[in-house]
Amino acid sequence: MKKDGTLKKPTTIWVVRLGDDVYVRAWNGLNSAWYNVAQQNHEGSVKLRGEEILVEFVDEPGKEVNEQINQAYLDKYGRSQYSKAMIGEEQQKNTMKLVPKTD
After folding, report:
1. What is each CA distance from 97 to 4, 43, 78, 81, 100, in whole angstroms?
2. Bridge-based pairing state of the strands 43-48 and 96-100
3. pLDDT at res. 34
């Protein structure tokens, strides 16, 4: 979000689902502008099937969940160079859970 409360230009992010939970990782880690904003504000919006959803960004899960997220990235996005990058050690450190805001 901008200082005036309006939303910034959308950025494509790679998300995966584990059960009812949705996770995201920043491929570029600390160099990703959206990731830095999410870390500062802990909130934002995502567009899913044309609907904008306000979310909270919750910090990374533990090792066991991260391993499941790794597999979910490989399953969803195939074994391309990009999906393999998404399961790297640095990317695992910047895993966040997307939680829909209720207020």
Report:
1. 26, 11, 21, 23, 10
2. unpaired
3. 87
Task: Name, in order, each residue with C-beta under 8 angstroms of 75's C-beta and a sequence gap of 6 or more.
Answer: none
State the distance between the two ends of the chain, measured CA to CA, in whole angstroms. Answer: 17
Distance CA 86, CA 70 (A): 8
Reported residue count of the chain is: 103
pLDDT mean over 85-99: 90
Q: Which two tokens stand for residue 44?
A: 């934002």
CB 36 within 8 A of CB 96: no
Q: Give the residue carrying structure tokens 């802990």.
A: 42
CB-count burial class (<10 Å; 0-12, 13-18, 19+) for 39: middle
- Each residue of 17-61: pLDDT tens digit? 999 999 999 888 778 888 888 888 899 888 888 888 999 999 867
